[in-house]
Design goal:
The chain is built from 13 helices and ten strands. The chain is of the alpha/beta class. Strand 8, helix 10 and strand 9 form a beta-alpha-beta unit. Helix 1 packs across helix 2, helix 3 runs antiparallel to helix 4 and helix 7 packs across helix 11. The mean pLDDT is about 95.
Length: about 350
């Protein structure tokens, strides 16, 4: 175990066993008292938040909250809107936003990775927001990771005349890989096309059934980041289905590899993309996704890739992310010390 890392075990969740419940608040509080951290950061609004909020102020300098996932609009709103008009569903969800505001109000700052989510939380009166975009390891995810052998591995000898699509992420229902597969079904006409799906999760078997008869390759979760970058950089387009992203890290990694992207018009995955080498489609529509991909690839392929490689420079790096995050921490720590002096 790496030095300084404390792992607290908990039972796995039934839908996705890779997620666990943090039930041992006593162990978390013991660790906080022992370490006396400068920054106590909450990365989940669930039981981890409850444990962090129980900690005494004398055992840490500042407490922050990172809005990683929009659990309200991802999981709660879709269920309600199956039975209620949108306006009524919003009213039902109001108390949940009260809980989010209460959590944020007891923290010195809340980190948000995209302008889209920043604006949403500001509309919901969540206090002390700071935009801190996530970063990509640009030493790995880079345009020159492209490899002719990687492309040939999936397309064979006709790699130059064929189209290689790729999608990546966790195979869970909210990621909407069904949209990606159905869009690919519409795109399979004329020249040879292959769709690579990288990832794993509880919906894998249903997605495999959905893709039956199509040239869709389920490659599993790729631990080798260099190989993942080579696949991205060697493909023709990245297809993304999830309309709930608070940032969209896999999209950023694909863009950093100089890969043209097709993203939904909801969520934050399309934030900052260059429309000269990317397309946005109506969320949830496989027909719109297919049409957007067809538009993207209808022109000069070499020129499209050249534009995408130039646009890769705009993707935030991990170094830029860390620099921005440390700036916010330093500001919050200074503010805390100033308040303590006044008190």
């Amino acid at each position: 175990m790496p030095e300084g890392v404390l792992r607290v075990g908990g039972p796995s969740l039934p839908y996705d066993p890779s997620y666990h419940l943090l039930l041992r608040a006593d162990r978390v509080l013991k660790a906080i008292r022992a370490e006396q951290p400068d920054v106590l950061e909450v990365h989940s609004p669930y039981l981890a938040a409850a444990a962090a909020l129980l900690a005494s102020r004398r055992h840490f300098a500042i407490r922050t909250f990172f809005w990683h996932a929009d659990f309200i609009d991802t999981y709660l709103r879709p269920v309600l809107e199956q039975h209620l008009p949108s306006a009524i569903a919003s009213g039902v969800l109001s108390p949940v936003w009260v809980l989010v505001r209460e959590l944020a109000s007891r923290c010195d700052g809340t980190m948000v990775a995209s302008s889209q989510q920043f604006a949403k939380l500001r509309r919901m009166n969540v206090p002390r927001l700071h935009k801190v975009p996530f970063g990509v390891d640009k030493s790995v995810f880079r345009p020159d990771a492209a490899d002719a052998r990687t492309r040939q591995e999936f397309l064979g000898e006709a790699s130059s005349e064929s189209v290689l699509f790729v999608a990546a992420g966790r195979f869970s229902y909210e990621k909407r890989f069904d949209v990606v597969i159905d869009a690919f079904r519409r795109l399979q006409s004329g020249r040879k096309a292959v769709l690579l799906l990288l990832g794993d999760g509880p919906e894998r078997s249903s997605l495999e059934a959905r893709a039956a008869g199509l040239d869709v390759r389920f490659l599993g979760f790729e631990k080798d980041r260099g190989k993942l970058a080579a696949i991205f950089a060697s493909s023709d387009a990245f297809l993304h289905g999830c309309p709930y992203e608070t940032f969209g890290l896999t999209v950023a990694e694909a863009r950093s590899c100089g890969l043209p992207v097709v993203v939904p018009d909801e969520g934050a995955s399309g934030e900052g993309i260059d429309l000269a080498c990317g397309e946005v489609y109506r969320s949830g529509s496989s027909e719109a996704c297919a049409a957007a991909a067809a538009r993207l690839l209808s022109g000069d392929g070499a020129a499209l890739r050249s534009r995408a490689r130039a646009a890769s420079a705009a993707v935030f790096s991990v170094e830029q992310h860390l620099e921005r995050l440390l700036e916010v921490y330093a500001q919050l720590l200074d503010d805390r010390r100033r308040r303590d002096r006044v008190a």
